[in-house]
Amino acid sequence: MYFYLTIAVIVVGLISLIGTILVGRKVDKEAKEYKLVKDKTQAELKRSQDYEKSSVKKNLRVLTIIYALTFLMSIIAVTYYIVNR
What we know:
single chain
């Protein structure tokens, strides 16, 4: 049974890692798009405003969900291990 528990924890960890990488790639893609703009001053101002309005809220929400689920699954796994020891 501990084998399945270990596999479940590893899978949840990998899903969290992949989700984090996807969020990071999205932010990196947006930054690259802003670098291609010729008018740097306007692009930086727009990027700053967009980041404050949506990016932080959206990315923070996604990352919070990912890590809350990871934490919850870890607590469940540890509790199961302790109870069935």
